[in-house]
Amino acid sequence: MNKTIGFIGAGNMASAMIKGIVKSNLISPEYIMTSDLDNQKLNKIKEENGIRITNDNIEIAKFSDILYLSVKPNKYKDVIEQIRSEIKEDAIIVTIAAGMTIEKIEEYFEKDIKIVRTMPNTPALVGEGMTALCPNKLVTEEEAEMIEDIFVRFSKVERVKESDIDAVTAVTGSSPAYVYMFIEALADAAVLNGLPRQQAYRMAAQAVYGSAKMVLETGKHPGQLKDEVCSPGGTTIEAVYSLEKNGFRAGVIEAVEECVKKAKNMGK
């Protein structure tokens, strides 16, 4: 790829994406730069990936053909006001923030600008991320495919309507946290029943990983796969009954609903 890539913000998501890009050998590390005020974060990223770093957002705006805004939603307006007159004429802005609509970003830039709104997740760190993206009307199909090609280096990619991004935020962007809680709860139960802690974590995590792979690779409905594990009068159906009795599905659905509501309100 004959492009320079910049990241404003050196948080977990930016770190995951940078690692994925560098590991894939898509471009040389010297063509990647990230900015942040936290020198400790910057130095760690530089040490791990060999990329360029700076404390100056204007420097990175001038440098980048593709500029990722990996900052909190409440920082977007200030950052954009700082860089909007400094970005390259044909730069593509890639947003990574819940609740920040394309319309809002266009308003902050106060000019026509190419924007791709995305929602990745942190499993990108291990090359197993999930990213949804939505380009604005100024982004060409070739440019949209180029952005996709970056994300596929560390995640699966789906193009979605912008109206679906808030649901994506809850179902893939935030859901690793729910899954980690589930793994922790499984491990706690295993420890309660005598299994060593680290072994419990490994076994619970592998069970979740394998189950997800079954859904993706078999194409079967999750309910069918669940039924295939539940023998009549067996141990699994007893556990499923207990989960249902305690509102397992309703609890998950309500959590996603609350996440979607929060995402919708963050851009206001």
Automatic annotation (TrEMBL):
Keyword annotations for this protein, in alphabetical order, are:
Amino-acid biosynthesis, Cytoplasm, NADP, Oxidoreductase, Proline biosynthesis
Primary location class: cytoplasm
A Pfam family per the record: F420_oxidored
What is the annotated localization of this protein? Cytoplasm
For this chain, one GO molecular function annotation is: pyrroline-5-carboxylate reductase activity
Q: Which residues form the Pyrroline-5-carboxylate reductase catalytic N-terminal domain?
A: 4-99
Q: Where does the Pyrroline-5-carboxylate reductase dimerisation domain lie?
A: 162-266
What EC number is given for this enzyme? 1.5.1.2
Question: Which PROSITE patterns does the UniProt record give?
Answer: P5CR
Q: In which pathway does it act?
A: Amino-acid biosynthesis; L-proline biosynthesis; L-proline from L-glutamate 5-semialdehyde: step 1/1
Q: Which reaction does it catalyse?
A: L-proline + NAD(+) = (S)-1-pyrroline-5-carboxylate + NADH + 2 H(+); L-proline + NADP(+) = (S)-1-pyrroline-5-carboxylate + NADPH + 2 H(+)
EC top class, in one word?
Answer: oxidoreductase
Q: Which InterPro entries match?
A: 6-PGluconate_DH-like_C_sf, NAD(P)-bd_dom_sf, P5C_Rdtase_cat_N, P5CR-like_CS, P5CR_dimer, Pyrroline-COOH_reductase
Q: Which domain of life is it from?
A: Bacteria
Identify the HAMAP family for this entry.
Answer: P5C_reductase
Its annotated function is as follows:
Catalyzes the reduction of 1-pyrroline-5-carboxylate (PCA) to L-proline.
Q: Which family does the entry's similarity section mention?
A: Belongs to the pyrroline-5-carboxylate reductase family.
Protein name from the UniProt record: Pyrroline-5-carboxylate reductase
- Name the species this protein comes from: Clostridium aestuarii
Q: What is the lineage of its organism?
A: Bacteria, Bacillati, Bacillota, Clostridia, Eubacteriales
Q: Which gene specifies this protein's sequence?
A: proC
